[in-house]
């Protein structure tokens, strides 16, 4: 098993994947670990929804409704969710007006779960790519997922069988101005 550091350095996004996908049981196991991110007041302000099969077609239809396009543009948009056999929708379940934990902190926790889940899926050998787009928070897209009023979509992890690209990932070294020390 890779160390957390080794897994982070090895991780890279997979824009193209095969039709293989992890079962719900494996997703649940990995989510148990991903849900261990730091979480102010332990609100667990997140949930995920696995979209498989025809649910991806319903998402495509919701994207077209959101974009108000037709013809070729609609066909292109409708097919986007079909690029992977499994889409893991990442949802921030925000408690508004919490006395200690503002909304941005709750979204940060949900995003942390998304990043850690993406890392764990990558480490388990799956191809993963986090995708969003201009319609991620459109009401039609929220309705397709059955989101409640205080739930916000953070995008989808597109997951499938990994195709080795042979291309190197981004370098792990930090350049320039991303680190400084105050003392
Ligand atoms: C919140 C979020 C949304 C993203 N949305 C998209 C997207 O819609 N389209 C895309 O090509 N990449 C998107 N990305 C970036 C890719 O997932 C990926 O991280 C990037 O291409 C860098 O490649 P790497 O992860 O292999 O270093 C998104 C990443 C994050 C964290």
Automatic annotation (TrEMBL):
Its EC number(s): 1.-.-.-
Tree of life domain: Bacteria
Cofactor note: Binds 1 FMN per subunit.
Residue positions binding FMN: 11-13, 36, 40, 130-132
Enzyme class: oxidoreductase
Gene Ontology molecular function terms on file: oxidoreductase activity
Names of required cofactors: FMN
Nitroreductase domain mapped to chain residues: 10-160
InterPro entries registered for this protein in UniProt: NAD(P)H_nitroreductase, Nitroreductase, Nitroreductase-like, YdjA-like
Keywords assigned: Flavoprotein, FMN, NAD, NADP, Oxidoreductase
Family classification: Belongs to the nitroreductase family.
Protein name per the record: Putative NAD(P)H nitroreductase
Organism lineage: Bacteria, Bacillati, Actinomycetota, Actinomycetes, Micrococcales
